[in-house]
Amino acid sequence: MSGSKTGLERLREKIREWSEEIGPITPRMERDPGALEEFCDAAVFRYQAQLAIPPEYRVSDDTGMAPVPGEGMTVQRVVMAEEISAVDPAIVLAAPGPSLSGGAIEAMADPDQKKWFYSRLQERPTWTFFGLTEPKHGSDAMGLETTLTPSGDGHLELSGTKRYVGNAARADVGVVFARTRPGPLGVMAVMVDTADPGFKATPLPTLGMRGNQICAIEMDRVRIPPENVLGRHLPASRRGIWGALQSLSAFRPGMAGMAVGIARAAHDYLLRHRGELAAGGMERVREIGRRIEAGRALTLHAARAADARSESAGYLASAAKYRTSRLAEDVTREAIALLGPGARLDHPDLDRYARDARAVEFMEGTRNVHRLNLFQGIVQRKLSG
Amino acid sequence: MSASPLFGTSPTPSSTGVEIRDRAREQGVLAALELLNRSTATECPRGPGGHAVVPEPQVQVTAAVEVALDGGSLVALRAADVPESADEPSSEWQLGLVWLRLGISERLLENCLDYLGGRTAGGTPLLVQQMVRGQLAEARGDQIEVELMLAQGALPSLLADLHERITRTDRSLCRLLGASSVVETGPGQEAYASELLADVYSPRTAPEPKESAA
Ligand SMILES: Cc1cc2nc3c(=O)[nH]c(=O)nc-3n(C[C@H](O)[C@H](O)[C@H](O)COP(=O)(O)OP(=O)(O)OC[C@H]3O[C@@H](n4cnc5c(N)ncnc54)[C@H](O)[C@@H]3O)c2cc1C
Questions:
Q1: Which phi and psi angles does A180 have, rounded to 5°?
Q2: Is the C-beta atom of B182 inside 6 A of ligand 1?
Q3: CATH of the domain at A110
Q4: Domains of chain B by range and CATH?
């Protein structure tokens, strides 16, 4: 076994142990939405929040675990996402910290903005949000209609509606994408303080991924100081939609890790309940296990390509994201079928995995969109060998 | 449509099935389930595992799952919480349930047409995207086959397969509805209710492992 493999295995074990320490949090959050606060001090939450802050902006350097030698950040994030999601993806999605908006900050913020953003996040457990999707524009983010207009006194005003934005109602700060003028280069990203007048986020009750608390956001002339505009120091082609795509693609392998984790949760569940399976059920469970192995291999491959900044990275991330989301959806559905009539009622954990799996499909791009992207990789000969 | 034999032995006018399907398509799960129960004189049908799903019960029950729908809620009960009076449903009821689920599936397809017709990708409607067209065509093809099997009077051994097909079709339609299918007030909630009914009542054996096609 190579040294790096051992390091990764150790990371897996530690994250698994930390996640199992708190167990699935969604059922407790469903009973009492305030319950989330009590998990913030758990090691797995602290680790995630710390890890997502670039070392040069960390107040303390103690993440609770040394980086794995020989493996990049994306691989470590993938392993973390899988291990946590095998317990409950809400432990990732409901966690305070930079999350997706951190990706936008990394891609577009100047040093002063980074300092402001990251220090604010370290004062106390702080949630953030990433506002891109709109009621009429999801996959078609380029068509977004939220406006950012000068207010006449050097400030800007943000108006419009966002939809399905995770954690927005519990967040203190977030990144919102808005239009300053028509066309693909007319999109800018701004940091928004949710306490500012004119900003309102309302949770949307969902079937799955309830821990993520996706929200509808209404913004009515929210004042944005010029220093909160991201990418002012960058050429127009390097901010706005480009920045959004950068942040999303950096997180995509992690989303695939999450999908593998959900599939694995269902598989582990079947193994624990092997006595209740119909005849021939174990052969099916083994076959499911082999499909999960393949999904995990693809996800790690995509993560390593991302860490190596390979030209195939984006295409592999698309392949991993859509195939593992499909895997999670199929495996959770099959697991319910294997446990016989009424399994959704007698095995509420499986019901939750299946509902969560349905939602993963839409996070960070749908399977159609990723298949179209993978196709681009094929015709451009970026995926050979 | 002429009467067709059901399960070879008990004849039932398939027009009842069609009526239940239409009710589901036009008014949703709750209204169709009420019609199904009424037309088969069923009050609280017990699934093969002893569970039951009932439209908002009048008496106090311990719900394992409660699904809020247009016009009320659907309540799923674990075996231990199902009233003593519950009965195994008749074969008419079981067949009618597949008709109901077909209607809900067709309702989802209608939702998809509305949704996708009103959305664009790069300025062109999503309905024009070939991948989307193919997925809608697959879904409708599956629905037509299910309808034909039902109209022929499906054998009990086929019902599990028909339930499974409808579930797979509904999942592909939900994917076409984007994240709107994940919110409880959206069309995905009816699809979930329909799956719950299949989970409790399908006389199923485990389906063959297969990746969802689209
Ligand atoms: C749990 C959850 C968390 C989320 N968190 C966030 C968040 O934090 N921030 C945020 O901004 N958004 C978030 N989203 C929204 C998510 O990004 C969108 O749902 C996603 O981009 C898809 O958009 P849509 O739902 O509008 O689907 P649509 O874009 O309307 O897609 C509908 C259907 O059309 C297909 N389609 C679209 N374009 C094409 C094409 N060109 N060719 C073929 N088929 C196509 C899709 O595959 C899909 O099947 C979240 C969603 C969920 C479910």
A1: -100, -25
A2: yes
A3: 1.10.540.10
A4: 15-49+89-201 (1.20.140.10)
Q: Chain A residues with CB inside 8 Å of B76's CB?
A: 344-345
Picking from A68, A89, A122, the residue at the C-terminal end of a domain is A122
A206: nearest CB among B178, B184, B195:
B184
d(CA B162, CA B181): 22
Of A122, A141, A160, the one marking the end of a domain is: A122
CB B162 within 8 A of CB B154: yes
Tell me if B30 sits within 8 A of B55, measured CB to CB. yes
| Residue A141: CATH number of its domain | 2.40.110.10
What are the structure tokens assigned to A69, written together? Answer: 């030698």
Please write the tens of the pLDDT for every residue from A298-341: 999 999 999 999 999 999 999 999 999 999 999 999 999 999 99
Q: What does the alpha-carbon distance between residue A165 and residue A359 come to, in Å, rounded to a whole number? A: 13
Flag whether A255 is in a domain. Answer: yes
pLDDT of A228-249, one tens digit each? 999 999 988 888 888 888 888 8
Q: How many CA atoms lie within 13 A of B171 on its CB side?
A: 25
Nearest-Cα distance to chain B for A364, in Å, is 11
